[in-house]
Amino acid sequence: MAQTPQQRRANLKFQKDQEARRGKSEDQIKKRVEKAPKSPVSMFWLVVLGFVVFGGLVFEVLSRLFLN
């Protein structure tokens, strides 16, 4: 079975990480600073949620002010 582009990128990243570890002690590897964990919710969905919550509020206020 052929690799997908996503699998290929993941394999290259893993290979690069393993090559960087080669010849180093466990203490040197543990000292490496880890990246901050990535948010499970993308920025797009946060914007959509904000629009639904605050956009609805804004439209409600405008309708109450101008349509009374």
TrEMBL record:
Keywords: Endoplasmic reticulum, Membrane, Transmembrane, Transmembrane helix. It comes from Neurospora tetrasperma (strain FGSC 2508 / ATCC MYA-4615 / P0657). This is Stress-associated endoplasmic reticulum protein. Belongs to the RAMP4 family. Pfam families: RAMP4 (PF06624). One of its GO terms (cellular component) is endoplasmic reticulum membrane. Interacts with target proteins during translocation into the lumen of the endoplasmic reticulum. Protects unfolded target proteins against degradation and facilitate correct glycosylation. The chain crosses the membrane at residues 43-67. It is a single-pass membrane protein. The keyword Endoplasmic reticulum applies.
